[in-house]
Structures are given as C-alpha cells and as structure tokens.
Write a structure and sequence with these properties.
Length: 104
C-alpha cells in the first residue's frame, strides 16, 4: 500500500493532530517502512506451519485446586464492634457486618 503526503495529512486531520510538512514527510517515511515490512511478512508462505500461542514450547505449571484455608468468618466477626448506645450485641447479623446508613 503506497501512501503519500496527502494521506498523512488526512490521517492527522482525522486524529485531530496538527502536523507540519516536515513532520508529514518524516511520518510518511516511517509509515512506508512499516507497511513495507508488513508486505514482506505477508509474502512468506505459511501453509504447512501450525499456529503457535507462544514462541517457545512451554507450559505453565499449575497447582492442584484444593482448599488450603479454612472458613474463619466466625473468628473475624467476633472482633466486630458493638451496635452502640451501650449495647453488648455485636454489629453482625446472619454473617454480615451491620454498618450505619450513610445515604438517605
């Protein structure tokens, strides 16, 4: 795909970039090089090559999916604050922490 200065200026306009003629010429050179490299890579015959997900033949070691921690909800909720106003009752109900209403 061949680009020219008009294409570069149009791309810059679409991207809302202000670009000088000197910058447009430098950008044209860089983009032409990139597009040339892409054309070279597309010219390679890859019909008998299987796609790879990684450049090296490695696999990730996975650990066994087993439970290693015990449920400590009761221990954590034993430290919950009291409801307030001199109450000896913890601010916990059905395994959930009770918090004051902050949005009306």
């Amino acid at each position: 795909m061949a680009l020219n200065i008009t294409d570069i200026k149009r791309i810059a306009h679409l991207a809302r970039l202000e670009i000088s003629d000197q910058e447009a010429t430098a950008t044209l050179t860089k983009l032409s090089g990139i597009l040339g490299l892409i054309e070279q890579m597309q010219a390679v015959d890859t019909t008998n090559i299987t796609p790879m997900s990684h450049s090296q033949d490695v696999t990730q070691r996975l650990r066994e999916d087993v439970v290693t921690a015990i449920n400590q909800r009761e221990a954590f909720q034993s430290n919950a604050p009291f409801l307030g106003n001199g109450s000896a009752e913890k601010a916990v109900d059905s395994g959930l922490y009770l918090v004051p209403k902050v949005i009306e």
